[in-house]
Amino acid sequence: MAGAAVLGRLGWRTATIADVKPETSRVKTIVFDVPGWPGHRAGQHVDVRLTADDGYQAERSYSIAAPADDERVELTVENVDDGEVSPYLTEEARAGDELEIRGPVGGYFVWDADHPGRVLLAGGGSGIVPLMAMIRQRGQVPTTLLYSARTLEDVIYREELEHLQRDGLDVVLTLTRSQPEGWTGHSRRVDTDLLAEVAPPPDGRPVAFVCGPTPFVEAVALALVELGHDPGLVKTERFGPTGT
Amino acid sequence: MKAADLALDGNAAAGILHAVYGAEMTLAVGTCDACASAGPVGRVRLYRSAGLVLRCPHCDAVLMKIVTAGERVWIDSRGLRTLELAAG
Questions:
Q1: Exposed, middle or buried, A225 (CB in 10 Å: 0-12/13-18/19+)?
Q2: Which terminus of chain A has fewer CB atoms gathered within 10 Å of its CB, N or C?
């Protein structure tokens, strides 16, 4: 099994914002310095807790966007209109701000570098975030990224993905709401036909990580199983409208 | 949008469960008391309201309810027959 149980209570740590980087109009990457951070694995996430002046607390779970790097933790966060934590992180957070982080957590949706064979990463919207941590540390593992976004402007990490594609990462983009002039890529929701065309074939026993809104995750996971993929090799994580 | 579309999964409770049980719990295997199906906690359905409600992905029965207020947490796990994880 991946990940030994870690004994001992998991507590909140103070994190200081080191940098805030815009990704799209609704998405920012926030870089934290977390003294004593124990490191993490690609696919894991953290809980972020904010405390208001009157003592009210709100916490949400966010995926870590980059592989372990000493005491640095990068989160990429999409603004949820009526959210309790993401509006602060995407609109108000500034370098030097302090908040609380608990983690890293999660052992189910994590990259296992020992798995032989190909890897399929399927992301919908901000579901790309934990997949990006995997991509950034994939080494020589042959990897296909299938990424569904509403428009080209909504594609998170666009420039970096273009670089990675030139360096050999297999990137398949589908734009479901509108496409730029001359778009030659895919323009429909991910379905069985699209997966049959772009996903590594099931007989090679690829492992699949699927992350996004619940309808996206369910559709992709079901389609993969229909195509003959082993359900045990299809790992899912659902991002909801409330921020996880 | 269907109610099920609002569901997250057990991964969203990883932090509080780790804090309470002192171990990574998303790979722990839970058995539903209602339908006896078993699977990793990371795969159950999770709804966020005043607290967290974890439901069986097969029969929709409530497995756990977790409510945090200040420094205290309440956990109702009547819907879980067993929880199996690494002993050490």
A1: middle
A2: N
**ipTM above threshold 0.90:** no
Helix (H, G, I), strand (E, B) or coil at A48: strand
Please report the pLDDT score of residue A136 as a whole number: 93
Partner residue opposite A108 with nearest CB, options B8, B19, B42: B42
Counting one residue from A and one from B, how many pairs have CB atoms under 8 Å apart?
96
CATH of residue A235's domain is 3.40.50.80
**Structural domain total, chain A:** 2
> How many Å apart are CA A198 and CA A173, to the nearest integer?
10
B48 beta partners: B52
Across the interface, of A3, A10, A109, the residue whose CB is closest to B19 is A10
pTM of the entire structure?
0.90
> Rounded distance, CA A23 to CA A156, Å?
6
Q: Do the bridges between strand A234-239 and strand A207-213 make them parallel or antiparallel, or are there none, so unpaired? A: parallel
